[in-house]
Design a protein that fits this description.
This is ABC-three component system protein. Pfam families: CTD1. InterPro entries: ABC-3C_CTD1. There is one protein chain. The protein is of the alpha/beta class. The chain folds into 2 domains: 210 residues, no CATH class; 163 residues, no CATH class. A 7-stranded mixed sheet has the order 5-6-4-3-2-1-7. It has a 6-stranded mixed sheet with strand order 8-9-10-12-15-14, with helices on both faces. Strands 11-13 form a two-stranded parallel ribbon. β8 and β9 form a beta hairpin. α2 packs parallel to α4, α5 packs across α8 and α8 packs antiparallel against α9. The longest helix is centred in the middle third of the chain and has 29 residues.
Length: 409
C-alpha cells in the first residue's frame, strides 16, 4: 500500500483509545527528563495549549502533541502535523513544537509548515523517534533512577515501582479529569485547564519525598495502576473486532478506574478476593476480574466500583474468586468467615455487597455466618462500644457467572 493510499483510510478506534492513555505517560517522561537535565523551574500544563505543554515564567516553552497507533505512514499524521505547526494563542512563532508517536513511520524528518514556516520535530527517545506504549514506563523508570543517583537517594526496585505508580497515577488522573470536564462543561473548564499547571518541584517531590509504605492506601493505589494497565492492554488487543457498544462500555469502565479515589480501591482490594487478607492483589486475579467485568452480559453500574443491581435492588459485585474444583467451595467458605472475623471493614462491605460473582466456579453456593457491627471506637468509650455491638446474620451468595446473569436479566 502506498503512502497516499494509506492516508485515505479512516482512523480506527485504536488510535482514539491509545492516545487517550498515552498522553499522561509521555508528559511525565518529558517532565522527568527536564528535571534530570537540571531544570526544576518549569510548569507542566495538560490538555489545553496542546496535548501537553511546558511553561516557564508564564511563557510557553514547548508544545507537545501525542499520537498513538495511527498508522505506518507520515501522511496518516498530516492533519495533526499541520495543527501542531499552527500559530494559535500562546503557540507563537519560534517556540519549540514536538510530535510524539508510538510506532515507527516511513519518514521522521522535521515537518515545516509551508505557510508559517514553523518547524515540528518528531520527539527523540534516545536514538529512536518513537516510543511504544509498552516501553514508556521502562524509559521513565530509567530517568527516575538517574535522578535518584544524582541526588544520592537510596532506593530498591520496590520503592522505584511504588513511587512511579503514585506519580504516574497523579499525572494521568489529572489529564483524564481535565479532558472529561472540557468535554462536558466547555469554555469554563478550558480556562481552568489553561491556568491549572503542575510545577516541576511538585513532580520531583513525588519521587523523592514519598515513602509509599507509610501510606494506608498504598495497595489500593497500586491496584488502581495495575488494573488500569491491564485494562489498557486488553482493550488495545480486543479493539479490532470490538463493537461500538462494547468499546464505549470498556472506555467507561476505564474512566471509572482512572478517576476513582483511593478509598474506592480499598473497597475493590477487599472485594476482589474476600477470601484472602488485604494485601497486594496478584496479577492473575486482576486478569480474572477484568475478564469477568468485560464478558458478563449485564451492563455494570459505574459508581464507586463496577457492580450490578437486580430487579429487587440487591447488589452484585464481580470478584476474582477462582473455584474450579467442587472442593473449593468448602475452603472458600471457611476462609471468608475467618477474614470477616479479623476484618470489620470486610464484614461491613459484604453486608452491602452480599452477592459475589465468581470469576470461575463449578456451582453457586451460600455462606451463612454472623457479622458483628462495631461502632467507631473514637466516638464512644471502649466499654460502651463493646456493649453496643450489633450481631447480624450475614448470608453471602457466591454465584457462577451464568447464575448471576440469570438474576440480572
Amino acid at each position: 500500500m502506498s503512502d497516499e493510499e494509506a492516508s485515505k483510510y479512516p482512523h480506527s478506534a485504536i488510535s482514539t483509545w491509545s492516545g487517550f492513555v498515552y498522553q499522561g505517560k509521555v508528559a511525565l517522561y518529558h517532565s522527568l527528563k527536564l528535571i534530570n537535565e537540571g531544570d526544576t523551574r518549569f510548569e507542566l500544563q495538560l490538555d489545553s495549549t496542546d496535548d501537553f505543554a511546558i511553561y516557564k515564567d508564564n511563557k510557553l516553552i514547548s508544545a507537545h502533541q501525542v499520537k498513538a497507533k495511527i498508522g505506518d505512514y507520515r501522511s496518516n499524521y498530516k492533519e495533526a502535523l499541520e495543527k501542531s505547526a499552527a500559530l494559535e494563542l500562546d503557540r507563537v512563532a519560534g517556540i519549540k513544537r514536538f510530535f510524539h508517536i508510538s510506532q515507527p513511520i516511513n519518514d521522521h524528518s522535521d515537518y515545516v509548515h509551508p505557510s508559517t514556516g514553523e518547524r515540528v520535530e518528531f520527539y527523540s527517545y534516545g536514538k529512536s523517534k518513537h516510543c511504544a506504549l509498552d516501553k514508556i514506563e521502562e524509559l521513565t523508570k530509567q530517568i527516575i533512577k538517574e535522578i535518584y543517583a544524582g541526588q544520592n537517594v537510596i532506593f530498591d526496585d520496590s520503592l522505584l515501582d511504588a513511587n512511579y505508580c503514585l506519580l504516574s497515577d497523579r499525572i494521568s488522573s489529572e489529564a483524564l479529569a481535565i479532558h472529561a470536564k472540557i468535554q462536558n462543561e466547555g469554555d469554563t473548564q478550558r480556562q481552568a485547564a489553561y491556568k491549572n499547571r503542575i510545577d516541576a518541584t511538585s513532580i520531583l517531590s513525588g519521587i523523592t519525598d514519598t515513602n509509599p509504605y507509610q501510606r494506608k492506601d498504598y495497595y489500593a493505589i497500586e491496584l488502581k495502576a495495575r488494573l488500569h494497565a491491564y485494562l489498557e492492554e486488553r482493550l488495545v488487543e480486543s479493539l479490532p473486532g470490538m463493537s461500538d457498544a462494547a468499546y464505549e462500555r470498556a472506555r467507561n469502565i476505564y474512566a471509572l478506574i482512572r478517576l476513582s479515589e483511593g478509598g474506592d480501591f480499598k473497597i475493590l482490594c477487599q472485594l476482589m478476593k474476600p477470601s484472602e487478607k488485604f494485601s497486594r492483589i496478584q496479577s492473575s486475579d486482576i486478569r480474572r476480574y477484568s475478564d469477568l467485568v468485560h464478558t458478563i452480559s449485564a451492563d455494570p453500574i459505574l459508581k464507586r466500583l463496577p457492580h450490578y443491581l437486580d430487579s429487587n435492588n440487591k447488589f452484585y459485585a464481580p470478584t476474582a474468586l477462582y473455584l474450579p474444583e467442587p472442593t473449593d467451595k468448602k475452603y472458600c467458605t471457611s476462609e471468608i468467615i475467618a477474614e470477616i472475623k479479623d476484618n470489620d471493614d470486610l464484614g461491613r462491605l459484604l453486608f452491602e455487597f452480599n452477592n459475589l460473582i465468581a470469576a470461575k466456579a463449578t456451582e453457586s453456593f451460600t455462606i451463612d455466618t454472623k457479622y458483628t457491627n462495631c461502632f467507631d471506637e473514637s466516638s464512644i468509650v471502649a466499654q460502651e462500644r463493646i456493649d453496643s455491638n450489633i450481631t447480624r446474620s450475614l448470608c453471602i451468595s457466591i454465584l457462577t457467572r451464568d447464575d448471576a446473569e440469570a438474576r440480572l436479566k
